[in-house]
Amino acid sequence: MDVELTEEQQALRETVEEFARKEVAPVIGGFYERGEVPYGIVAKMGAMGLFGLPFPEEHGGMGGDYFALCLALEELARVDSSVAITLEAGVSLGAMPIFRFGTAEQRERWLPALTAGTALGAFGLTESGGGSDAGATRTTARLDGDVWVINGSKAFITNAGTDITSIVTVTAITGTRPDGGKEISAIMVPAGTPGFTFSQKYSKVGWSASDTRELFFDDCRVPAANLLGERGRGYAQFLSILDEGRIAIAALAVGLAQGCVDESLRYAREREAFGRKIGSHQAIQFKIADMEVRAHTSRLAYYAAAAKMLRGAPFKKEAAIAKLVASGAAVDNARDATQVFGGYGFMNEYPVARFYRDAKVLEIGEGTSEVQRMLIARELGL
């Protein structure tokens, strides 16, 4: 397997790297502290075509692939994860389900704005009593003539209540399967639909400049034509979306892990202790070397998973491995980078403090580390 980037891929990586360094890094700390979504940055990412990277041009996309999205996510997360997760969720969870499972009419209506980044989409799967047990859905949707009537709630939903959110797709119980189990379907709910409300933004440990909310549905009525994909296949559809999304989250985690290396190297070359630069001390050298090893091996893991996905081979195990390894690397590197910085690492004005706060959720979101181990074991036949 050749892990060298093509000229086009390298050009994309360098473009996003420069954007993150020049446009995001100087201002994101303020947005983070204020808990504000940086709409200006989101608009610039849209103008660059980042929200359209893996979509064909006929839907307003850039005609690229999922790996291109991963490269962009990695470079953004080297500077800030709030911006990166806004892009990841908008593409992987907001637009991709419509692209994968939507009708021609649904794609034509919703994808142009989503792929342009002028609107954001979200996906409501998790519920307060469900967590990793996403099959424990309690939200219901019943047909009333040619209208779905939705009742229930969803938790921890990214991009659900921004000023530019246009559509949220939710899973809901729409009946009973022949075996007596729940029939779970996916239904699109446009923003502003009566009966659809959301909470104030969560007060989060990290990802403070991204939007995450709880959603509520109280006799929310949407057209029957808003069913996304096949009735009763909503849960299965989203599991396949999660497999892809785990590669994207792995890429984001690699970016955070590499950002920790970047910042630690810079600081180690500047900071003096005991009469010399701290980078000359073997304890610091070994710590940063271990951080680079974690970032490098995690990158190889998501590259390999993406390669299998793009050539149409089964990739569930590889996606789980990439997400497990990369999220662990992000947490370990954030901890070590904070240690390298000492007291300054505990100050929010430094990027490593944001990295430390942002890293932990990577072991939780889009499947916990325990879920990844379960998936890997199942793929091994256990």
Extract low-pLDDT stretches: none
Percent of residues in β-strands: 15-25%
Distance between the termini: 28 Å
* Strand order in the largest sheet: 1-4-5-8
- Supply the CATH architecture of the largest domain: Up-down Bundle
Classification by helices and strands: alpha+beta
CATH topology of the largest domain: Butyryl-CoA Dehydrogenase, subunit A, domain 3
- In total, the number of strands is 10
CATH class of the largest domain: Mainly Alpha
Oligomer: single chain
Tell me the number of helical segments per DSSP (H or I, 4 or more residues long). 11
Largest sheet: 4 strands, mixed
Mean pLDDT: 95
Provide the domain count: 3
Cα gyration radius (Å): 21 Å
Instruction: List the secondary-structure elements in sequence, H or E.
Output: HHHHHHEEEEEEEEHEEHHHH
Proportion in helices: 40-55%
Domain Acyl-CoA oxidase/dehydrogenase middle: 122-220
Protein name: Acyl-CoA dehydrogenase family protein
Pfam families: Acyl-CoA_dh_1, Acyl-CoA_dh_M, Acyl-CoA_dh_N
Keywords: FAD, Flavoprotein, Oxidoreductase
